[in-house]
């Protein structure tokens, strides 16, 4: 009997991931950037989509400290450093320096996010409950991992409903 794709939800241990949180502001309403993710996310919120995309995809961050960013662009984007500097100074009202350096060090924001997601997938596959399910349902695979909601661990324990921590979508040709 073929049921096609069946959904199996399992309550798995919490795995930490970085969330896109609001950028902090000081008492005067100026933004406080602590990472390139803050800059990219705020640019996106302010509808500066091209800048946000360029930062996330093409600016390898060699170093980031308050007041100074060193980037190594992945592509020829001659205005990236100037646009980044202008955006940061407009939103912080502080003097910043954006240096373009020739370096193989650093990663783009999106490369860091991708690496983090791959680590979460690898960690999830190694959990005993996941290994057990995957061995029981040969040919199945994980297609989506949903992060924890802001619930306490006690509320999540021994629950089985549609708001579970993680969803595993399994395919099985013949379920008994």
Describe this entry's structure for a reader.
- This protein is of the alpha+beta class.
- Helices cover 36% and strands 16% of the residues.
- The chain contains 6 helices and 5 strands, in the order βααββαβαααβ.
- Helix 3 links the parallel strand 3 and strand 4.
- The radius of gyration is 21 Å and the shape is elongated.
The number of helical segments is 6
CATH third-level topology of the largest domain:
GMP Synthetase, Chain A, domain 3
Order of helices and strands: EHHEEHEHHHE
Terminal CA distance reads: 9 Å
CATH class of the largest domain: Alpha Beta
Helical residue percent?
Answer: 25-40%
Tell me briefly what this model is:
This protein is α+β, with helices and mostly antiparallel strands. It has two domains: 5-12 and 111-171, no CATH class; 36-108, 2-Layer Sandwich (GMP Synthetase, Chain A, domain 3).
Any key phrases for this structure?
5 strands; 176 residues; two-stranded antiparallel sheet; 2 domains; 3-stranded mixed beta sheet; disordered C terminus; alpha+beta; GMP Synthetase, Chain A, domain 3
Task: Provide the fold topology.
Blueprint: E1 5-10, H1 36-45, H2 49-58, E2 59-65, E3 68-73, H3 80-92, E4 97-100, H4 109-125, H5 128-136, H6 153-156, E5 166-171
